[in-house]
Design goal:
heterodimer, A: mainly beta, 7-stranded mixed β-sheet, 4-stranded antiparallel β-sheet, globular, B: mainly beta, 0% helix, 51% strand
Chain lengths: 113, 120
C-alpha cells in the first residue's frame, strides 16, 4: 500500500500570508508511461464534504482560485495557498490514485492566526 | 446540476447489516467510476470501495473485504454499499463520490454523506 504522510498536522497563518502543506508518499506516484503524478488535493470545510482542488499534482480544477498552487513530483508534493483568505479555513488532504488501495494523507488543518 | 444523495445510514448493532444507497443525477452514471469514502467522527478520510462503470470490477480497502459489497444499478441511477458483519470501527460518515472524467480513482464530486453508527 502507498502510505501518504502530510505535514504539519495544523498551521495558523495570517490573512494574506502564505500557507504551505506538505505531502509525502511511501513510493513514487509518478506513472512513467505518461509522466503524470497521480496525486490530488482536497479541501474540506466544517460540516461539508471534501472538494477537489488540484489533480495530477498541479492542475487546478475549474473554478479553483489561482492562489491554490500544487507542486512536486514522485514522492514529495506541496500545496501552497499563496495569500490566505478567510474562506480558506479548512482541512486539506492529499490523495494518491495511482493504485488501489486509494489512500489519503491524514489531513492538515489551516486556521487564521 | 450534479447531485449525489446518500441514504440508508443509521444505528446498528455490532454484527448487523446495513445497505447504503447513493442516488445520482445530473450526469450519465453509466460512464463513471463510483466510490465510497468514509470519515470517522473527527478523523480523516478513508477510501472504502470503488466500482467500474459497468459494475464488472470492484476494489476494496482490506479492512472491509469480505464484509462490504459495492454495486450499481445504472438504469435507475443508483450505487449501493452493502455492509455486513459491522464493527464499531465502521462507524463513520459514508460519502458517495464520483470518479473524474479522465481517471475514475480521483473524486470530482461528493455527496453530503450518511452517518453509520455501530453500537450496542
Amino acid at each position: 500500500d502507498i502510505v501518504m504522510t502530510q505535514s504539519p498536522d495544523s498551521l495558523a497563518v495570517s490573512l494574506g500570508e502564505r500557507a504551505t502543506i506538505n505531502c509525502k508518499s511511501s513510493r513514487s506516484v509518478l506513472y512513467t508511461s505518461n509522466n503524470k503524478d497521480y496525486l490530488s488535493w482536497y479541501q474540506q470545510k466544517p460540516g461539508q464534504p471534501p472538494k477537489l482542488l488540484i489533480s495530477w499534482a498541479s492542475t487546478r480544477e475549474s473554478g479553483v482560485p489561482d492562489r491554490f498552487i500544487g507542486s512536486g513530483s514522485g514522492t514529495d508534493f506541496t500545496l501552497t495557498i499563496s495569500s490566505l483568505q478567510a474562506e480558506d479555513v479548512a482541512v486539506y488532504y492529499c490523495q494518491q490514485y495511482l493504485a488501489p488501495p486509494l489512500t489519503f494523507g491524514g489531513g492538515t488543518k489551516v486556521e487564521i492566526k | 446540476e450534479v447531485q449525489l444523495v446518500e441514504s440508508g445510514g443509521g444505528l446498528v448493532q455490532p454484527g448487523g447489516s446495513l445497505r447504503l444507497s447513493c442516488a445520482a443525477s445530473g450526469f450519465t452514471l453509466s460512464q463513471k467510476w463510483m466510490n465510497w469514502v468514509r470519515q470517522a467522527p473527527g478523523k480523516g478520510l478513508e477510501w472504502v470501495a470503488t466500482v467500474k462503470p459497468d459494475g464488472g470490477q470492484q476494489y476494496y480497502v482490506d479492512s472491509v473485504k469480505g464484509r462490504f459489497t459495492i454495486s450499481r444499478d445504472n438504469a435507475n441511477n443508483l450505487v449501493y454499499l452493502q455492509m455486513n458483519s459491522l464493527r464499531a470501527e465502521d462507524s463513520a460518515i459514508y460519502f458517495c463520490a464520483r470518479g473524474a472524467f479522465d481517471h475514475g480513482w480521483r473524486f470530482d464530486f461528493w455527496g453530503q454523506g450518511t452517518l453509520v453508527t455501530v453500537s450496542s
